[in-house]
Amino acid sequence: MSYILDQEQLEGIEEVLQKDLMDLGLKCVILIDMAGNIIANLDNGQVGHDVYSLAALAAGNFGAVCAMAAIIGEDDFALLFHKGKSENIHFSKVMDDFLLVTIFGNDVSLGYLRLKVDESITKLGKIFETTRQV
């Protein structure tokens, strides 16, 4: 399914991501569709990631993990988490069509982040409900 977002909706998405997630001290938040296209991208100004490659790889990674879930009898896995030495990545599905990718350091609690991501997903879902689908 495709969505058409207007400027007000894009600003609403960015406001949710900024207030609910970036203000926690995250390094980067990217909202993508399942094909890896970037819907919104916010960072703390200190990130030098190639977000386009990251978005494409995140979508592919999530797709691969969903295929693995199907093999073991699960519908899908709603979230993924990869822990690094200094940076971590958390992926969470937003509805069936989007993926929220957060990059954060070890100074951010994973449990608290998951709680805030869940709250953000609820808010984003309400924004997407008002979009025109084609």
From TrEMBL:
Record's PANTHER family? Answer: LATE ENDOSOMAL/LYSOSOMAL MP1 INTERACTING PROTEIN
Give TM regions: 51-73
**Entries under SUPFAM superfamilies matching the protein:** Roadblock/LC7 domain
Gene3D superfamilies (alphabetical): Dynein light chain 2a, cytoplasmic
Which segments constitute the Roadblock/LAMTOR2 domain? 13-104
What are the GO MF terms of this UniProt record?
Answer: guanyl-nucleotide exchange factor activity; molecular adaptor activity
Kindly give the Pfam families that the UniProt entry links to this protein: Robl_LC7 (PF03259)
Q: What is this protein called?
A: Roadblock/LC7 domain-containing protein
Q: Say which domain of life the source belongs to.
A: Bacteria
Q: Which GO terms describe its biological process?
A: positive regulation of TOR signaling
Q: Which UniProt keywords apply?
A: Membrane, Transmembrane, Transmembrane helix
Coiled-coil regions, chain positions: none
Q: Which residues form the signal peptide?
A: none
Q: Does the keyword Calcium apply?
A: no
